[in-house]
Design goal:
Length: about 575
């Protein structure tokens, strides 16, 4: 069983009573008004003084002096008074900015609303009102403001502005209410040809945040129907597919057939990889490489997938093609990744000198950890595990991520060289240091199984399920362990089915379901399930199970072919070797 160890802004802190609020529109679309941050000193050019009376000028001067002396509240009152008396938009804007700097959301909103009353067609004024309303959590009131803000834009800018709405509401805690507000505000725009696609795309994204995924799929369908050539609806469908909505994949494929956008095709391939559908990803990348032979990113990703599929010869060709395309560029990270993968290929082929040569080409400091790990693997391949572990021990642990990276590297090294007891001790110590880390606890459970400590494994997995009821890998691991030992098969099947509820396309969990069906005597059902898992992920251990089912059905030729293919992937795999030995099969 495979173990699974779980890819112009406005910033102001507003203080209302005891609540501290933050306005952040980090991706505020250019079609919206773009408010400026509070300048350190008064910007005389920002305010047209020629039409201001001496009284108003005095208010402005005194207000700026109060601000400079550290009393922005008094300064706001004076500048706001000047704005109301003069009706000058620049003074209204300045008063809003002063209120924001003073962390007074209510004052900022009062000023912004007065600005819109004085200049009802000002898109910038409406934009300020909208942002402050959202920051103050006045979501219901923002419906009208949002609708007005869009309507005030020129028609050719409205669709782009609508796409930016989701980001404006991204920090709202009540996602369901935010979704309802945006849907209500956009209702008139879903019926306009120029804005319908953008509106349904934004509604779909808001529905995702509100965890209304089936409804988001419906929005994606409408968005694609209204704007089949636009990339945004396709990206929405792609996001839904990545979240497990299988219906969305059909939308993605149809959209790609029409648009054929390279970046979207590559994104689709990445989602397939994340979903463990490596064969489908491979087909997509090969097609893309054929259509766009000079698109270097495709060759890098293709090489990575080919390595995962043990197609090392093809992977080497792909990676060398990537290096050829990138030879005159300065993108260090991509080159370093290619060098690392080529080093892995040579190490696997026992060409240690060539593996070292590829490592020596890497001068990217961000890749230091991976280079060190690869050098440790080179040392271990020569039989000196202790020296390899010492090299990994030199890796930095100055951040939690770095510390976890070093731990994972050492455990993988020990597991690869079957030092299971050492790996267990390392993981156990790490888990004791952080008992709340369920991923570490899971890894301890998996290593306990390797050591035959099955009761300990079961206790650990059940404790994980108790602490995190949606930890699908714990259900799968426990169910598979029971099935593999031919124990409590109905319970084993129930556990695996539960895991599939959380990850229905995970080929390793599908493999577990096939195996428990086989153990329960449902051979034809097991065969269909395992063939599905193997088609999505031709993994050695899935192959071992599928081959055994074929063998039990008298289909020896099919079994032998699958096992021979698996041997080419990893001839030293424990499960494969045990299966062949138990069935007395010689390849």
């Amino acid at each position: 069983m495979k173990s699974h160890s779980p890819l112009h802004t406005l910033r102001g802190a507003l203080l209302t009573g005891a609540a501290s609020l933050v306005i952040s529109t980090s991706s505020f679309h250019l079609a919206w008004a773009q408010p400026s941050p509070l300048p350190e000193q008064p910007d005389s050019a920002a305010i047209e003084n020629s039409n201001l009376s001496s009284e108003w000028l005095m208010l402005i001067l005194l207000g700026e002096m109060q601000i400079a002396q550290g009393d922005p509240s008094a300064g706001f009152s004076m500048i706001f008074e000047a704005a109301r008396k003069s009706g000058d938009p620049a003074l209204y804007k300045r008063s809003v900015e002063v209120a924001l700097a003073a962390r007074s959301g209510t004052s900022a909103l009062e000023s912004a609303k007065a600005w819109t009353k004085a200049h009802p067609k000002s898109q910038e004024a409406n934009s300020y009102v909208l942002q402050v309303q959202i920051a103050l959590n006045q979501l219901a009131e923002s419906v009208t403001t949002l609708r007005s803000s869009i309507s005030l834009l020129p028609p050719e800018q409205q669709a782009d502005a609508i796409i930016g709405i989701a980001q404006i509401y991204s920090q709202v805690k009540d996602k369901e209410l935010a979704n309802a507000v945006v849907e209500q505000a956009l209702t008139p725009f879903t019926n306009k040809e120029s804005t319908a696609g953008a509106s349904w795309t934004t509604i779909g994204r808001m529905r995702i945040w509100a965890k209304k995924l089936p409804q988001a799929v419906e929005a994606a369908k409408l968005a694609l129907a209204k704007s089949p050539e636009s990339p945004e609806p396709t990206m929405l469908a792609l996001e839904l597919f990545s979240l497990g909505e299988s219906q969305a994949e059909d939308l993605v494929l149809k959209a790609l057939q029409k648009s054929g956008q390279t970046s979207l095709q590559l994104s689709y391939a990445r989602v397939l990889i994340d979903n463990q559908r490596l064969n489908d990803a491979l087909a997509q990348l090969r097609k893309l490489a054929q259509e766009m032979p000079n698109f270097s990113d495709v060759w890098l990703l293709l090489g990575a997938v080919q390595i995962e599929q043990a197609q090392d010869t093809d992977a080497k060709v792909s990676l060398l093609r990537f290096l050829d395309l990138e030879k005159d560029k300065q993108e260090v990270r991509g080159l370093s990744q290619a060098y690392l993968m080529l080093s892995q290929i040579e190490l696997k082929a026992k060409n240690n000198a060539q593996a070292e040569s590829w490592l020596n080409k890497i001068d990217d400091p961000e890749q230091l950890t991976q280079v060190q790990v690869q050098r440790a693997n080179l040392i271990a391949s020569k039989g000196d595990i202790n020296k390899a572990r010492a090299l990994i021990a030199q890796l930095p642990t100055n951040t939690p991520q770095a510390k976890r990276g070093r731990l994972q590297a050492e455990v993988k090294l020990l597991r690869d060289y079957k030092k299971y007891d050492d790996a267990y001790q390392v993981l156990l110590q790490a888990s004791k240091e952080d008992p709340s880390d369920l991923d570490l606890r899971y890894e301890v459970a998996m290593m306990s199984e390797k050591l035959g400590r099955l009761d300990e494994m079961e206790n650990l997995l059940r404790s994980i399920i108790a602490d995190k009821p949606d930890f699908q890998h714990a259900y799968n691991a426990l169910g598979f362990s029971l099935a593999d030992r031919n124990l409590r098969l109905p319970e084993a099947r129930e556990l695996i089915v539960k895991a599939l509820e959380f990850a229905p396309e995970d080929p390793f969990i599908v493999d577990s379901l096939g195996w428990v069906e086989f153990r329960m005597g449902n051979k034809l059902s097991a065969l269909a399930i395992l063939e599905r898992a193997y088609s999505n992920r031709p993994d050695v251990e899935i192959a071992a199970h599928l081959g055994e089912v074929h063998w039990s059905l008298g289909q020896q030729d099919k079994a032998l072919k699958i096992w021979r293919d698996a041997m080419r992937l990893d001839q030293n795999n424990d499960l494969l070797q045990q299966t062949l030995k138990r069935l007395k099969v010689k390849l």
